[in-house]
Design goal:
This protein is mostly helical. It contains 21 helices and 2 strands. A two-stranded antiparallel ribbon has the order 1-2. The N terminus is likely disordered.
């Protein structure tokens, strides 16, 4: 309602007086026949009842009395209106309060239900979680308040527990990825079932290698996080005792550091002139230079005692790689050139003089062929005695697991498999440092299976040389002299065939071509030299040699700070 304004006392009185004067009666006059009604409680009737006739009232007093009564009634009306508005607001607020109360009761009911469900899940552990007093022994056992070495030990234990707890989730993720890859690889509905099964088998075996490689990488990171191994380039570079200048060990350290450094990539090696000289020696197949170089290199690697697994694998792959390049590609180019120049246009040839391999001493060819087989087989057979120094060098430069009880690889061989294999210490000529307590026949990963492949290839090449020698003795080539029979009934007959054809130019060419054939049969070894598949298929981690000749984890030096151009 609009606000009430109290009338002024003078204004109300003036209006009353004006009304009285306009009607022609005196302001205080009253008819004689009208009853006296005391409307305002002022006592006028009582005062006028004692008079004999018409009573006369003072106009000024009448004006004051009416103004006060009007103000009183105005205040009473204002209060009644205010009380009515407050009552209406109270009713509105009460209704809203009832709604909020109902919503709060519903929320409280839902909270009680959730609390009851949580109580069921917590079960017996709830009393421990709601203890009135704090159990300080539990906090102390968890490492709360630890300082100094105790704090570092607690941190290391926390890192270790973190890696252990994450192992099942890593495995689940890798297995899920394997199934996704298999599903995508065999998604062709027209693919034969035999091809599908082969692809699934290949993916399973490859994924096993990936899991092993991933676990080894995690193990290295775990050891580094716990402070078990050296992870600084300066520490790895200074690891090992100083060597006497120009001593045999000094020469060994410098040759290995220049050829197989731990802190240089291929681009860094290209800047080293010594590396170029050693690489050139490894590629020269004439006069047995390549074989002699790799023989010395194998001795230097095995002198590490025990030899590093990654370095033995690198030796095998490097030796076979240089064989494909020097005895395969280069000798093929030489053979094609020689055959082209030794055949003349007048139907004559001088291949008996200018043919491939005729001018080369066959003894050096035999040394190159036999050395390419024997040195690789020795490195293969030495793999079970090896170990991997990547991530396993202690901060003091010692070997972490020389005294392990079983010595078997954690990820590649179980204890039962090691016992069944029958590999025992003493197979490596009784050297305890060169041998583990139990040898690990899974060293080298998938590469170890190529040993039998290489033996088969070498045997097949030997048979090929014998067949070509018999072909020359029997004159089985068309257009030559009449053929004759040369039987092979025993080893003596084979020796006789080779001895008769050994000094001829045809045998030189046949043996030259056989070396080329054997070199190209080593192409599968190149697959293991791919950057990613190398570590995955061989289950090894990169290593290298420092200036003291110690085999340490491979680690490039830190990048120099970049200076901003002014």
């Amino acid at each position: 309602p609009p606000p009430l304004t109290a009338p002024r006392a003078g204004a109300g009185a003036g209006a009353t007086a004006g009304a009285a004067s306009s009607s022609g009666a005196s302001p205080g006059a009253r008819r004689s026949n009208e009853p006296c009604i005391d409307r305002f409680g002022g006592g006028q009737c009582a005062a006028s009842s004692g008079a004999a006739g018409m009573a006369t009232i003072d106009p000024s007093g009448m004006t004051t009395d009416y103004g006060a009564k009007a103000a009183h009634f105005w205040e009473r009306g204002r209060r009644q209106v205010a009380d009515a508005a407050a009552a209406a607001a109270a009713v509105d607020y009460q209704a809203k309060g009832q709604e909020l109360l109902a919503a709060g009761q519903d929320a409280a009911l839902l909270a009680r239900q959730r609390a009851a469900k949580g109580l069921e899940q917590v079960g017996s552990s709830l009393p421990v979680l709601t203890k009135d007093r704090l159990d300080l022994s539990i906090l102390a056992g968890a490492g709360f308040g630890a300082t100094g070495l105790n704090l570092e030990r607690r941190k290391a234990e926390a890192y270790d527990a973190l890696f252990v707890m994450s192992a099942p989730y890593r495995m689940q993720l890798l297995l899920a990825l394997r199934e996704m890859v298999k599903e995508a690889a065999v998604a062709d509905p027209e693919m034969p079932s035999c091809v599908t099964s082969r692809i699934e088998l290949i993916v399973d075996r490859l994924w096993t290698d990936i899991i092993v490689y991933q676990e080894k990488m995690v193990e290295d990171v775990r050891d580094a996080a716990m402070g078990r191994t050296a992870v600084d380039h300066a520490e790895l570079a200074l690891m090992g005792p100083p060597l006497l200048t120009f001593s045999p060990f000094w020469w060994r350290a410098h040759i290995l550091y220049h050829y197989l450094p731990f802190d240089k990539s291929l681009f860094g090696c290209l800047k080293d002139p010594v590396w170029w000289i050693l690489t050139a020696l490894s590629l020269v197949s004439m006069y047995g230079i390549r074989v002699i170089f790799h023989l010395v290199l194998l001795i230097l690697i095995m002198r590490g005692c025990p030899a590093d697994e990654y370095q033995l694998v690198t030796f095998i792959l490097g030796f076979k790689g240089t064989q494909v390049l020097s005895s395969g590609v280069v000798m093929s180019i030489i053979a094609a050139t020689k055959f082209y120049t030794c055949v003349h246009s007048d139907h004559r040839h001088s291949c008996d003089v200018d043919g491939p391999g005729t001018a080369q001493d066959i003894t050096f060819g035999v040394v190159d062929f036999v050395g390419s087989c024997v040195l690789v087989w020795i490195a293969f057979l030495w793999l079970p005695c090896s170990r991997n120094y990547s991530g396993s060098r202690d901060l003091d430069g010692q070997i972490a697991d020389l005294d392990d009880g079983d010595g078997a690889s954690e990820h590649t061989l179980s204890d039962a498999d090691s016992d069944a294999g029958g590999f025992r210490r003493g197979w490596c000529f009784g050297c305890r440092r060169c041998c583990r307590h139990r040898l690990d026949p899974t060293r080298g990963g998938r590469l170890a299976g190529l040993l039998f492949y290489d033996m088969f290839c070498a045997l097949m090449c030997i048979v090929l040389v014998i067949c070509l020698a018999r072909l020359d003795l029997t004159h089985a080539r068309p257009g030559g002299r009449p053929a004759r029979d040369v039987p092979i009934n025993s080893i003596t007959d084979i020796e006789s065939i080779v001895a008769q054809d050994y000094g001829t130019w045809k045998f030189h060419i046949a043996f030259f071509m056989t070396r080329i054939f054997y070199a190209f049969l080593s192409v599968p070894f190149l697959v293991f030299q791919l950057p990613v598949l190398n570590s995955v298929l061989t289950h090894t981690r990169p290593t290298g040699y420092n200036v003291q000749g110690m085999c340490v984890p491979y680690m490039l030096p830190p990048m120099p700070p970049k200076h901003k151009a002014h």
